[in-house]
Each structure stands twice: as C-alpha cells, then as structure tokens.
C-alpha cells in the first residue's frame, strides 16, 4: 500500500486543507499518517478522523525579541530527529505539508530521507515556516496567482485550496433546528477564527439588539468567549467552535462575517457566500490576512473592514449594505473560475511519489 505523511498545525487553517484531501487519498489507496505537535489544535482534529497521529517537539520562529528564541531552536532540533525517526519507521512515498511551525522539522527530515515533499501555501505571500521549508520541497502549491513570483519558479504550482467536500452538502433546516431558530429572518454567520476575535465579538454584541430585529445570528466566538448574559437571546446562537455541524451552518448562512485566513475565504468562495472580511491587523500579524482580503475585494467577492475601524455602527451598516447587494457578490464568485484544487494536488502527489 502507498503511504503518505501529512503535517501542519498551529491553527485550524493549517489542518483543514489536509483533511479535505483524506477521502481522495484513501480512495487512491494511500495509508495516511499525520505528524503534528503534542497538544496543538491539529491533534484533536486529526484523531477525530481516526488517522494515526504522532506528536513531536516544535518551536516558534519569531521575528521579534523573546527569551524563547534561545530555547525554541533546541525544540525544533529535537523535533527534527523525532520526525526523522518516524519517517524511517513509516517509510512514506511522499510528505504533504500545510505549513505552521511544526511542519518545518518534518519537511527538513524528509529531505534527509530522500522523501519527496509537497508544500501548500495558502496566503498571498509565504509565511516564515514555509519559507524555511521551501528549499527542502519538491513542489510548492499556492492559492493566489499573485503568490507565484514569491516561490521558486521550478517548484511553483497554482492549485487553489482543497475544500472539504462535506461543506458543499449542508442542510439549512438542520442548522435552524440545531440553533433553535424558528423565524424567517435572514441568517448572519459570524466567525472569528479558531481562537475567536475580541474585536469582532465586541462589535457584534455591541449592536446585538438592533441586529436581531433584522437577522438571526450564528456566532462562532472562539474558545472561552461565550457570553453567558446572551445565552437566552432569541435568534442568537453562540458556539465556541463547530466542526460536525459546520456544513449545515454554512448552508443556512445568507451572509458571513469572518477573518481573512486564506482557507476560510476560499471556502466562502466555493460556497458562494456573500461576506465581510475583517483581517487581522499588522499589529497582530505579518499582514497576510490584509493581502488576502484585498485580493478578494478587488475580485468583487468580499467587502472589507480594517480591524482598527470596526465599530458596532460601522459593522452594522456594512452588513446591511452587503445584504442589499448579495446578488452582485454571488455572481462574482460564481464567475470566478475557481480551480479543482483536490484533483490538481492529487495529480502532483502521484507525480512526485517515489
């Protein structure tokens, strides 16, 4: 049987595209193994899929001063030797990496074992982890045409992002039953990423009463961010994180407010969901979400609000405006010529497998 080792972690965005490939890999006869961090978000997500999971030591690569910059290189080195031992034991035909810092020692270890590696970069510009891993890669996939100049020309392949196929088959009524919605008002879905967003949560809750006169609201607010005082609000359903019921929630949503992580926005594109993107600011990131959001805005897929300018009033006005012009956004997404990323990536996996 053919074997593949997949890696990536730190956020859900470094895991879900890997999960999107599972069905096709298994149908093509691949035995899947996964290497991630000891206790990262990827551990639970992968173990839920009954895929063999191996935790290794990992460290963060920082551009700023921190005492951890003195200790983390040793964690990465430890992770490298752990990954090398695991790869020697599993003997995969290929390694597929979605990025995140835990993937770096895995990719580098694969090179020393002469195992071909495919990297996928979701954002418009490569993150530091993927930059460090690229010299060890056989191929580097990307989402955006604008990314190609940042990649090694002989390795770069425009594939788009693998989308979990189950997201395309949700049930709107199942979502309404799950959320306890009984009205006919349009449904607004708010997503702050896997760890939530204080900015978005506060802005939504700051105008919750007015919004509930026009919309029913599904609010994925992040771990530890449930507001107990709003638990009994009719038409308002809040959850820390949703996995199994997510296809139904997407099916029900008439409009989505979200961060601008590349995988999330590619899912919105595939689902043709009108959306408002609120990217992480440069104060809290390298600015990749801002570039992602601006690319989608230029193509007519999204409205964009800068995090620093978000107020309850401005967010509410933007929600109303996008709802009034839903068809414009839907038409732009339907005409986007989105690629079949899973088919393209599966072809690459077959091409490079030893």
TrEMBL record:
The similarity comment for this entry is:
Belongs to the glycosyltransferase 28 family. MurG subfamily.
Q: Does the keyword Ribosomal protein apply?
A: no
Task: Answer whether the UniProt record assigns the keyword Calcium to this protein.
Answer: no
What reaction does this enzyme carry out catalytically?
di-trans,octa-cis-undecaprenyl diphospho-N-acetyl-alpha-D-muramoyl-L-alanyl-D-glutamyl-meso-2,6-diaminopimeloyl-D-alanyl-D-alanine + UDP-N-acetyl-alpha-D-glucosamine = di-trans,octa-cis-undecaprenyl diphospho-[N-acetyl-alpha-D-glucosaminyl-(1->4)]-N-acetyl-alpha-D-muramoyl-L-alanyl-D-glutamyl-meso-2,6-diaminopimeloyl-D-alanyl-D-alanine + UDP + H(+)
Q: By what name is this protein known?
A: UDP-N-acetylglucosamine--N-acetylmuramyl-(pentapeptide) pyrophosphoryl-undecaprenol N-acetylglucosamine transferase
- Pathway, per UniProt? Cell wall biogenesis; peptidoglycan biosynthesis
Alphabetically list the UniProt keywords.
Cell cycle, Cell division, Cell membrane, Cell shape, Cell wall biogenesis/degradation, Glycosyltransferase, Membrane, Peptidoglycan synthesis, Transferase
Q: Which domain of life is it from?
A: Bacteria
Native source species? Roseburia lenta
The record's function comment reads: Cell wall formation. Catalyzes the transfer of a GlcNAc subunit on undecaprenyl-pyrophosphoryl-MurNAc-pentapeptide (lipid intermediate I) to form undecaprenyl-pyrophosphoryl-MurNAc-(pentapeptide)GlcNAc (lipid intermediate II).
Glycosyltransferase family 28 N-terminal domain location, by residue? 4-140
Supply the EC number(s). 2.4.1.227
Tell me, what's a Pfam family for it?
Glyco_tran_28_C
Classification via NCBIfam families:
murG, PRK12446.1
């Amino acid at each position: 049987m053919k074997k593949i080792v997949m890696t990536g972690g730190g956020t859900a965005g470094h895991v879900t595209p890997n999960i999107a490939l599972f069905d096709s890999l298994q149908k093509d006869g691949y035995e899947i193994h996964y290497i991630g961090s000891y206790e990262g978000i990827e551990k639970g997500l992968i173990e839920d899929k009954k895929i063999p999971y191996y935790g290794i030591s990992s460290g963060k690569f920082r551009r700023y001063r921190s005492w951890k910059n003195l200790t983390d290189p040793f964690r990465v080195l430890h992770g490298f030797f752990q990954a090398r031992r695991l790869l020697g034991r599993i003997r995969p035909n290929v390694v597929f990496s979605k990025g995140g810092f835990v993937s770096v020692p895995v990719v580098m270890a694969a090179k020393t074992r002469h195992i071909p590696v495919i990297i996928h970069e979701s954002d418009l510009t490569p993150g530091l982890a993927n930059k460090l891993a690229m010299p060890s890669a056989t191929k580097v996939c990307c989402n955006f045409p604008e990314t190609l100049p940042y990649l090694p020309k002989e390795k770069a392949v425009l594939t788009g992002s693998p989308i979990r196929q189950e997201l395309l088959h949700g049930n709107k009524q199942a979502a309404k039953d799950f959320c306890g919605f009984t009205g006919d008002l349009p449904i607004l879905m708010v997503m702050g990423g896997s760890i939530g967003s204080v900015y978005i949560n506060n802005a939504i809750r700051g105008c919750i009463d007015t919004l509930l006169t026009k919309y029913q609201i599904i609010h994925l607010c992040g771990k530890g961010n449930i507001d107990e005082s709003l638990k009994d609000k009719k038409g308002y359903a809040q959850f820390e994180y949703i996995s199994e019921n997510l296809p139904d929630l997407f099916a029900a949503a008439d409009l989505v407010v979200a961060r601008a992580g590349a995988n999330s926005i590619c899912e919105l594109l595939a689902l043709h969901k009108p959306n408002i993107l609120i990217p992480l600011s440069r104060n809290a990131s390298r600015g990749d979400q801002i570039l992602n959001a601006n690319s989608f805005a230029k193509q007519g897929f999204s409205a964009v609000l800068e995090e620093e300018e978000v107020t309850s009033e401005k967010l509410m006005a933007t929600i109303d405006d996008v709802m009034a012009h839903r068809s414009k956004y839907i038409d732009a997404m339907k005409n986007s010529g989105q690629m079949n990323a899973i088919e393209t990536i599966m072809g690459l996996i077959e091409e490079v497998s030893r």
